[in-house]
Design brief:
Shape: elongated
Oligomer: single chain
Number of strands: 18
Mean pLDDT: 83
Distance between the termini: 63 Å
Radius of gyration: 30 Å
Length: about 300
């Protein structure tokens, strides 16, 4: 009898807990409260909000946005589901391109985007270097971003001549950058210690091998950004991808006067491919089957 009463009491408590949980879930659904993750320069906190937009949610949670600060998604984005809000604080940066420099206040985080904000147009082969005049931390006042411009030269590989850009200092550095290993019998048109200068020509040639060099495309890759406010079949290309180019040298083995086999022995990248950036829908199924099917038909 005691066991029966104990079992009955536990069952009643379990049923009561389920009832309370379901009731709380209905209340939360009725009030429209969303649970959001807010990351401010890498520091993340969780907030519960009934705000309609990202900007309203940030202000109601005590996050102040200053001029030039940036949010992802944007402040105007409607809050329709739980998601992550990133806040990037703006800071002053001096962008230096040779004799030219320009100081901006920006929330951009990648060197290429910062340079573009300052009005410069770096090439794919150009590099960047951060320096700090009065603070060791990146992004502190006094940060300087130097654009390291590449040089264009004519590069000839076994008779195939093409243009390429490089930031390397000497011809030996250029060969290491392109992973070129000289085989026995190979020769270079200039000493390996020669400093790279714009417009110069560097040739690699061999008199003991039957080779051919062709120019081929390097397919570009795609980076996808998920947008929780768009249906799953949504797709928008924000930055179009561009194929790169490379020189491929093939070694041809001849037997009895005929071509026996052919294999690639060297590859030299002339131009790196540009990654394509596309926004794709990632809106989760909300329980409205008719709306979900309508989204799929769009």
């Amino acid at each position: 009898m005691k066991k029966f009463l104990l079992f009955g009491g536990v069952s009643a408590l379990l049923l009561f807990g389920i009832f309370v949980y379901l009731r709380a879930s209905r209340v939360e659904a009725q009030t429209g409260t969303k649970i959001l993750q807010v990351s401010v320069d890498g520091n993340t906190k969780t907030i519960a909000t009934s705000a309609e937009t990202v900007g309203e949610a940030l202000r109601s949670s005590g996050v102040t946005l200053y001029e030039h600060d940036k949010t992802e998604p944007s402040e105007e984005t409607k809050i329709t589901t739980d998601f992550l809000i990133n806040v990037y604080r703006a800071r002053p940066i001096s962008v230096i391109d040779g004799p030219n420099s320009y100081t901006i206040t920006t929330a951009e985080r990648t060197p290429r985007a910062i340079a573009a904000k300052a009005g410069f147009k770096p090439l794919a082969e150009d590099g960047f270097e951060y320096r700090h005049s009065d603070a060791p931390l990146e992004g502190a006042p006094g940060t300087r971003l130097y654009i390291k411009r590449s040089k264009e030269i004519t590069f000839e590989l076994y008779g195939k001549s093409s243009k390429l850009r490089t930031r390397e200092l000497t011809v030996a550095d250029l060969l290491r950058e392109k992973s070129i290993v000289l085989d026995e019998g190979d020769a270079v048109s200039v000493p390996l210690a020669t400093r790279i200068s714009s417009g110069m020509k560097v040739s690699i040639y061999s008199v003991d091998k039957k080779v051919e060099t062709v120019e081929e495309n390097i397919p570009f890759k795609e980076q996808q950004i998920q947008d929780a406010n768009q249906p799953v079949n949504y797709r928008l290309v924000k930055e179009k991808g561009v194929n790169g180019r490379q020189l491929v040298t093939y070694e041809i083995e001849i037997r009895n006067g005929k071509e026996f086999k052919k294999k690639a022995v060297k590859k030299v990248v002339l131009k790196e491919p540009v990654t394509q950036v596309a926004v794709v829908g990632a809106r989760l199924y909300s329980g409205n089957l008719a709306q979900w099917l309508a989204d799929l038909r769009q």
